[in-house]
Amino acid sequence: MVSCEQARIDDEPETVEVTLTLSGAPLAKADSPLIPDVENLIYDVWILQYDKMGLLIDKGTSHQRATSSGSLTATVTTTFAAGEGNTICVLANLDKGDVYASRVWPQTLTEFKNSCDVVNLSADIDAANAGTLTDMPMFGYWEGDISVETNNVQVSLGRMLTRINLVINNQSSSSMTVNSISNVSTKVYAFPDVFHAALPADAYAEISIGQEVAAGKTKELYFYMAPNFTEAPSENQATDPNPDHRPTMLYISDKDPVILSNGSPSDTPRDYNLYHNSNYTFTININ
Q1: Which among 248, 238, 253 has a CA at the least distance from the CA of 206?
Q2: CA dist list (Å): 136 to 85, 133, 209, 212
Q3: 120: left (phi over 0), alpha (psi -120 to 50) or beta
């Protein structure tokens, strides 16, 4: 008589119920064309768990708070798979009010970090610039081990958009027109970093402004866009034909275009990018 025995391998990971505490990271200043609640309140959240190999764990992925009221901080009880070296990604305010929201997320953390197409924020950018946006897309992450002893994970959320504040001082004797902003980025790297590949050519749009600034007067204007990651332009910045050289540019009447970037014109080398969760104020003096 012969008998055999087969060991059963349990592929189901051990899960842990964890309280996720969320808060928003502050901007440099509070005044804006959108009321502070729009820029700061947290509504729905997508929670993604990537393991130490950078693979998405289905059991650690969920959409919560779909119908919750906005709050400056939020607490969510969620389930994670136990394991070492996890990256927990939290995306807020993408599907507010939609309890049936469904999204396809990158299966690897590398793809999540390096893709500018994880989420489409073009409609949010249009709404923000029209003054009709009701909730600001945010992102935050946490890295560490999940075990049965883990009971709380704290994540600070930063805004996925960049805010541009323009202060136009027309010190000349003639009226000037703020015509447009070109190379406005509409695709976003959801995962914040100071090093990203240059955005593709189809990631850009133009904002038509057409605002007049009378002689001797000052006008303040506000705009929202995705962070801009671009290669440094050549010396002929206004007419550089290289499609990878796409710094954000401001056009006023017949004046030379002004580059709107993280680095000042005096910096060598100059940083031509615009970054996540940043509030830039550019003061333009026209003589």
Answers
A1: 248
A2: 29, 7, 22, 29
A3: beta
